[in-house]
Task: inverse folding
């Protein structure tokens, strides 16, 4: 009788776990989080270890790296280490990067090697100084007031300039991993640092983003040609999705970052 009871309870426990996974609609793949939905455009986990390319584990988009990029221990598994001087990644242009006025999520884990007065580009796409979409880490005031920013222009018009207003106690530090997630839902852009929504300062409200005929860049913006704008540190678990992640998805993703 006891054995039968144990078997029944075990069956119910396993069935409940399966139901929960189906209900949440996301899971883990090779210790890296994949959200199983048709709107996930790319998922780069940088697990290749050697070579100059990283293959999206969810789509066919290939990130090709230039310069001295090294495979290192990441927030989960391995990551790519950027040296600021020569290193950046490029992904061929694709309709997946054309967000327009639609919802999107851009997520990654970041590790800072240095803090200085230069902007650190994270994910960018730009054809010229009048058409660009930028996710960056920047010293806004030049005095060590570091913020995560989103900037976008279309045909020379600002269509989004929104920055975080992170409390001093939570300011990013060197030699730490940070989970960073930008989520557009309608006319609102939210930024999550380690799963916590941060106060936002809106200079220009979100509009329709440009359809830019340019590669997607990881760790640099090519239109300004300055090595000082390259990322200095590590990048891991890059995700791009044409949907607004829920709070639950953001939390689940952020818990995967080994801080």
Result:
């Amino acid at each position: 009788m006891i054995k039968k009871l144990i078997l029944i309870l075990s069956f119910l426990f396993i069935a409940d776990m399966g139901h929960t996974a189906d209900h949440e609609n996301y899971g883990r793949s090779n210790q890296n989080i994949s959200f199983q939905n048709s709107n996930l455009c790319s998922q780069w986990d940088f697990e290749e270890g050697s070579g100059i390319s990283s293959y999206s584990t969810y789509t066919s988009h290939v990130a090709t790296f230039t310069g001295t990029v090294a495979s290192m221990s990441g927030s989960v598994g391995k990551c790519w280490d950027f040296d600021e001087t020569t290193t950046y990644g490029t992904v061929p242009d694709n309709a997946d990067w054309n967000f327009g006025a639609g919802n999107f999520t851009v997520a990654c884990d970041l590790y800072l090697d240095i803090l200085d007065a230069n902007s650190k580009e994270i994910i960018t796409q730009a054809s010229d100084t009048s058409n660009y979409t930028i996710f960056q880490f920047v010293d806004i005031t030049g005095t060590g007031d570091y913020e995560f920013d989103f900037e976008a222009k279309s045909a020379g018009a600002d269509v989004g300039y929104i920055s975080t207003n992170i409390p001093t106690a939570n300011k990013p530090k060197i030699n730490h991993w940070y989970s960073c997630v930008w989520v557009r839902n309608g006319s609102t852009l939210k930024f999550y640092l380690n799963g916590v929504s941060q106060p936002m300062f809106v200079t220009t409200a979100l509009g329709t983003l440009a359809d830019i005929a340019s590669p997607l860049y990881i760790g640099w913006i090519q239109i300004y040609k300055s090595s000082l704008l390259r990322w200095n540190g590590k990048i891991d678990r890059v995700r791009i999705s044409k949907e607004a992640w829920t709070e639950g998805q953001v939390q689940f993703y952020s818990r995967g970052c080994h801080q």
Observations:
- Residues 37-255 form a domain with the Jelly Rolls fold (CATH 2.60.120.200).
- The longest strand covers residues 232-241.
- Confidence is low (pLDDT under 50) at residues 3-31.
